[in-house]
Write a structure and sequence with these properties.
alpha/beta, seven-stranded mixed sheet, five-stranded mixed sheet, globular
């Protein structure tokens, strides 16, 4: 900035600069901060990791975080190259991933434990020194565990190779061992390596449903150092349930029962399913409910035949309740345009058929003891009492409240970060490539404005803000986002849950995808979307999840000449056979983009005992012609703005517009 521009700007910003002067009360302090920020701008950018559609697979997710999608293993190989055998490098990696568990195994087998400690601590310090090299000392210091902060700093910044420091460093390590703190110190170093290897984590939606550990994933995220979430349709279903939407509650319960997964509900959130079990046995005791058996091949729960049948009865009971509750919303909200989903009043229970578009389809299950043909959407007294009890369980769950607060604090419908546009599923579009106008209440929204409005409504529904009429709409709309044709989280013609459950004809199961899913393969369409969201940069991308990429059939996750990256590779076990892999991680580091393709994760136990890592394949998506530095990122833009403000403050000090103060004067 020229002096003339600074002088004019200082006069306009004088009140702000006076506030800034409280943090930097002298020329020396303001100058020092400028020097510090300018230096940070010239460090390599931190590594970003992108994951999508985790669907409750907590063990695979945890392992991918611990090994940083293979980055820890690559660094160990680079550092120790030919100086360690492959088995030794594998042991070191396992120790970094699971320090507590691995230490127990080592101590049970190792005879010369002090020697092992001496060697291992030196190895961990070398790895830690490598992963911390792209950060300032200040940032590393903030990441350090308090009890070992000083010691780790000394080890990171002093080398045993230096003759004058060799004895000093060796003595630190020997003293750690002799004082009995080696285990704690190893755990601290391993956790620090994990933390520094991933600078920023992006979750592109769908943490919930199918797998058993969504609550465990949320526990990890709530304590994670730097992350954001772009809400997925399954996440919104849980958010709607937590907001008190009864149809969302029913869907959540049905989904868990379908996959034989009650752990998230019962163990994670304390949802009491006993009233549902009692109701199901009373209402469907003579019904085998064979069409509603849980997909136990995806659930490691060892259920016996009696339990499996009970879950099937509970599944069917909740499915019927879901259809009734959804019917209430559809009839209450004709503006949703979902009358074609009102199927219960097209049932002919005597003939055992369902009429859709004038054609009668035979039902493969005709036992509906709780449906009144004269008023099919009316809940029976038992169903009404049941759903009230379950909703109360959702509203009373403190763990669920904590996780939802995390979702709102760190989450949104979309995110723009470092020239990348992140959203879970879709931007509703017309076939001609224009943004689809979607009416919400009395106004139409499209593109970015639509996602902004949806974000607002979701927050209103959960936090119960706004006028009563608007709040009631928001609470219904949060369910619409799960299955509505114009929902940017769904964007299909219908959700054929009823047809898949009760009609054999596969033609009725089809769900036509919106135009976006075809158009997104075109570079000009991706550019149009990126422009709509104000995404700038020579290398800019859209990063999606939601639709599994069928690698086994040759489908490429990289589309539109590299502008579109679809990273749902099937973390969820039910999708492994469809995708042929077990998930993707997109890694964006200072030298470019790499897509990591993962094979199925065996188990945490095998990873610890046998050193069995996830087998991953690295795919180069895009490499930069020059190494990207902090100054090339969004964070760099923030720092440059701060530098400009500090330069104005210096001008104000030096020209007498603001007086310097000692800190004790304030």
């Amino acid at each position: 900035m020229t002096k003339e521009i600074i002088a004019e700007s200082v006069v306009n910003d004088l009140r702000y600069l006076q506030l800034l002067a409280r943090s930097f009360p002298t020329i020396a302090e303001a100058s020092t901060e400028i020097i510090n920020l300018e230096a940070i701008l010239n460090l390599p950018k931190g590594t970003e990791h992108f994951l999508s559609d985790l669907h409750g697979e907590d063990q695979a997710f945890s392992h991918v975080l611990r090994n940083a999608s293979g980055a820890v293993k690559r660094k160990v190989n680079e550092i120790f190259s030919n100086t360690l055998r492959e088995a030794e490098k594998k042991e070191l990696c396992t120790l970094i991933y699971y320090p507590e568990d691995k230490l127990e195994l080592v101590k049970a087998a190792e005879r010369e434990l002090d020697d092992w400690y001496q060697v291992t601590l030196n190895q961990l310090v070398r790895v830690c020194r490598n992963v911390s090299s792209k950060y300032t000392r200040s940032k590393v210091r903030k990441a350090l565990p308090k009890e070992f902060s000083y010691i780790i700093q000394e080890l990171l910044h002093e080398s045993s190779v230096e003759p004058n420091k060799s004895a000093y460093v060796d003595q630190i390590i020997r003293t750690i061992i002799s004082t009995g703190r080696a285990d704690d110190f190893i755990i601290a170093l391993a956790n620090l390596i994990q933390r520094l290897t991933i600078d920023l984590l992006h979750i592109i939606g769908d943490i919930y449903d199918r797998g058993p550990g969504a609550h465990l994933i949320m526990d990890i995220l709530c304590d994670y150092h730097n992350f954001d979430i772009q809400w997925g349709n399954h996440d919104l279903l849980w958010m709607g349930a937590a907001a008190g939407n009864r149809a969302s509650v029913a869907n959540v319960i049905r989904m868990c029962l379908r996959f034989g997964n009650m752990a998230t509900l019962e163990d994670g959130y304390g949802i009491n399913l006993l009233p549902l079990a009692t109701f199901a046995m009373d209402s469907y005791g003579d019904d085998p409910c064979s069409l509603f058996l849980p997909q136990t091949k995806f659930a490691d729960n060892g259920m016996d035949e009696k339990t499996t049948r009970l879950i099937a009865q509970m599944h069917k009971a909740m499915t019927i309740i879901q259809f009734k509750l959804e019917g209430e919303i559809i009839r209450r909200r004709p503006e949703f345009g979902m009358e074609d989903r009102l199927l219960l009043d097209h049932l002919d229970l005597q003939q055992g058929t369902l009429t859709i578009n004038g054609k009668a389809y035979p039902l493969i299950d005709t036992h509906f003891p709780t449906i009144d043909p004269n008023d099919p959407y009316r809940l029976t007294e038992g169903e009404q009492d049941l759903i009230e009890k379950i909703c109360h369980s959702f509203e009373s769950s403190e763990k669920l409240k904590k996780h939802m607060r995390c979702f709102f604090r760190h989450g949104s419908m979309y995110q723009v970060c470092n020239s990348n546009l992140l959203f879970h599923a879709s931007i509703p579009m017309n076939a001609d490539g224009t943004f689809k106008q979607v009416r919400i209440l009395d106004k139409e929204y499209a593109g970015k404005a639509l996602l902004d409005k949806v974000d607002q409504l979701v927050r209103e529904a959960y936090f119960k803000t706004g006028e009563p009429e608007e709040l009631a709409f928001a609470c219904d709309y949060i369910w619409y986002l799960w299955c509505g044709a114009d929902s940017p989280l769904f964007d299909k013609s219908k959700m054929a849950t009823f047809e898949r459950a009760f009609i054999a004809d596969a033609e009725t199961h089809k769900e036509e995808k919106g135009a976006y899913y075809t158009l997104r393969t075109k570079e000009e369409i991706c550019d149009k979307i990126l422009d709509e969201f104000g995404v700038e940069g020579t290398h800019r991308h859209i990063i999606n999840g939601h639709v599994p990429v069928r690698s086994v059939k040759g489908e490429n996750p990289i589309k539109a000449n590299g502008k579109m990256l679809v990273i749902d590779g099937g973390f969820s076990r039910p999708y492994h056979s469809k995708t042929g892999i077990a998930g993707y991680t997109l890694v964006y580091h200072s030298r470019g983009f790499q897509l990591v393709q993962h094979e199925p994760f065996e188990s945490r136990a095998k990873a610890i005992e046998e050193g069995l890592d996830i087998k991953s394949t690295m795919i180069v998506v895009e490499l930069s012609s020059h190494r990207q530095m902090v100054k090339d990122t969004d964070k760099g833009a923030e720092l440059k703005s701060q530098i400009q403000d500090l330069e104005k403050l210096l001008y104000a000090y030096r020209n007498g517009l603001i007086k310097e103060k000692e800190r004790f004067e304030r």
